[in-house]
Design a protein that fits this description.
Number of helices: 9
Order of helices and strands: EHEHEHEHEHEHEHEHH
CATH class: Alpha Beta
Shape: globular
CATH architecture: Alpha-Beta Barrel
CATH topology: TIM Barrel
Helix content: 40-55%
Strand order of the largest sheet: 1-2-3-4-5-6-7-8
Number of domains: 1
Oligomer: single chain
């Protein structure tokens, strides 16, 4: 896992062939991490998608993780999982996937949750949403100050998510984020590769 970068998360409503083309464009642009997340597909559809996503990410040496599914992470030898607060507990995930696995934890706007995750062996902590979000419009808002405090108190990469796009990304990085997690802004843009390259220019060199 790179120390910082663009963290792409797949959307639910997208044709598989289109998804693969868009992920290829993301990889060409230089994303640092891809999370496969789909709450609507059947298990067989998820397996079929991962069969194609895994070698694609491997060819670019970019970690591929899955949202809250330890079985799929094990079956496809993925780089890890991302867990919400109501998902599989971190200790169980770490035991099953091993010390090298990437395990991220959603912490919303709560520093205490992030501190607990860090103490329990998380690979990164994620905060958000910071701006109005198409993916999770009902999610409670998070404050940029939380990123600043987290950077001071937690020795892990910090992921920011929720309504992030090129126009507001700099403020999130300045507040303390290590990673910018995006869904709609990436997958809805016409020139995905260039969009990622423009985002990458915002990170400290």
């Amino acid at each position: 896992m790179k120390p910082s970068g663009v963290y792409a998360i797949t959307p639910d409503t997208i044709d598989q062939n289109i998804l693969l083309n868009k992920v290829s464009a993301l990889l060409d642009g230089g994303i640092a991490l891809l999370q496969y997340r789909n709450k609507t597909q059947s298990l067989s559809q998820k397996r079929n998608t991962l069969l194609q996503l895994k070698p694609l990410c491997d060819s670019y040496r970019i970690p591929l993780i899955v949202n809250d599914d330890l079985n799929l992470a094990e079956e496809f030898e993925l780089s890890g999982v991302h867990l919400g607060q109501s998902d599989t507990d971190l200790a169980s995930a770490r035991r099953r996937l091993g010390q090298q696995a990437l395990i991220g934890i959603s912490c919303h706007n709560n520093l205490r949750l992030a501190q607990n995750a860090a103490q329990s062996g998380a690979s990164y902590v994620a905060f958000g949403r910071f701006f109005p979000s198409k993916t999770k419009p009902e999610a409670p808002p998070a404050q940029l100050d939380t990123l600043t405090l987290a950077k001071e108190q937690i020795a892990l990469p910090i992921v920011a998510i929720g309504g992030i796009k090129l126009e507001n990304a700099a403020s999130v990085l300045e507040a303390g984020a290590s990673y910018l997690a995006l869904v709609s802004a990436l997958f809805d843009t016409e020139d995905i590769t260039n969009y990622v390259k423009q985002l990458n220019k915002l990170f400290p060199q």
